[in-house]
Amino acid sequence: MKENPISFQLKLRPDDFLKATEEEKQSLVVMRESVSFWKDGARRLMKNKVAVASILVIFIIMIFSFIVPSFYPYSYKEQVKGANNLKPMEYSAKEQEAIEAGEKVFPHIFGTDKLGRDYAIRVMMGSRISLLVGLIATVIILIIGSAYGSIAAYFGGWTDIVMMRIVDIIYTVPDILLIVLLSFALKAPLQSLTTIAGFGWVRTVGENLISIFIVFALLYWVGMARMVRSQVLMLKESEYVTAARALGVSNGKIIRKHLLTNCIGTLIVTTTLQIPSSIFTESFLSFLGLGVAKPLPSLGSLASEAINGLNTYPHLLFIPALLISLIILSFNLLGDGLRDAFDPKLKN
Predict the structure, then answer these.
(1) What's the CA gap between 235 and 256, in Å, rounded?
(2) Which value, to the nearest 10 degrees, does the dihedral of the CA atoms of residues 121, 124, 130, 133 take?
(3) Measuring CA to CA, which of 14, 139, 304, 311 is 20 to 30 A from 156?
(4) CA–CA distance, 132 with 136 (Å, rounded to integer)
């Protein structure tokens, strides 16, 4: 029987009904490998070269600030006689004599300040203080802001209205003025606490720094609260939240286990971006003389002390200023990389 060349009938053969081989089955599988949220985010983050470079820079700064001072030969408050205002890698006359006598003298890598203190170790300690203040303040902001915003969004109604109007009022409070007022208001109580209870750490870091932490706890969490509120408002109508309510799960557990857990990606990004903001605020306040107590240095206080000798010793200002810029830039770039890695809306 001849085949009609213009026929549209399917031409089936016995071979067409054979079972597909395993290789043929695997070739049709187009599903991605199942990975966890953290593994997928870490894999996407490692593909971002700028974010990886920022992590390396932050890691190097951490070593420079927390590890190197433990075996550095100079102390941040040690004054070397005759070594005032030395340039980088310069020795004093007495140190030159010791070198000529065969003694080993460690160089002043960044020079010294007007009191003869090694500037490199003071920069290390200053960056340590700035990083610690930024990290501690960010943790305070994260705890208060996430708790406040999630409660306001979850309960809604008048609770949400009243709580968010409080946030609007706090936005209008001038933070610098409040820090100055708290510095004077807390000075006497903190000094009494130091004397009576023996809290020497208060005298070490200074009353001004304690007031900075209090201001962060009072004012700077409002941005985090608004962000968490917007996320919880979208998540609280989800099916798993409705199911948890039907099963009798307490409101606190729903907020903690279901809502905030599903906001973790956004919280990580916002927290990372909050760190440079806190560091900048601390450096700015220390520049104004509202930071740590002397002789403990901060990057802001180092820049403030060096500004009077800008024409003669410009490196004393440029070194802490560049380090502040490098820290802030690295954390900002890392925050952008984390946002690209953990934000589900940006996944391709």
Answers:
(1) 13
(2) -90
(3) 139
(4) 6
The pLDDT of residue 14 is 67
Say if residues 102 and 114 touch (Cβ distance below 8 Å): no
Judged against a pLDDT cut of 70, whether residue 191 lies above it is answered with no
Encoding tokens for residue 74?
């100079």
Q: How far is CA 314 from CA 123, 205, 281, 287, 319, in A?
A: 15, 27, 23, 16, 9
Amino acid at the residue 74: Y
pLDDT of residue 198: 46
pTM, to two decimals: 0.79
Among the listed residues 272, 266, 280, 268, the one whose alpha carbon sits nearest the alpha carbon of residue 332? 272
Residue 238 token pair: 């989800």
The rounded Cα 247 to chain-centroid distance in angstroms is 38
**pLDDT band per the 50, 70, 90 thresholds, residue 82:** confident
Helix, strand, coil percent values for the chain (each to nearest 5): 70, 0, 30
As given in the structure block, the two tokens for residue 216 are: 């962060």
Cβ-based neighbours of 155, under 8 Å, separated by 6 or more: 251
Tokens of 233: 């408002």
pLDDT (tens digit per residue) in 265-285: 788 888 888 888 888 888 887
Half-sphere exposure of 118 (CA within 13 A, CB side): 18
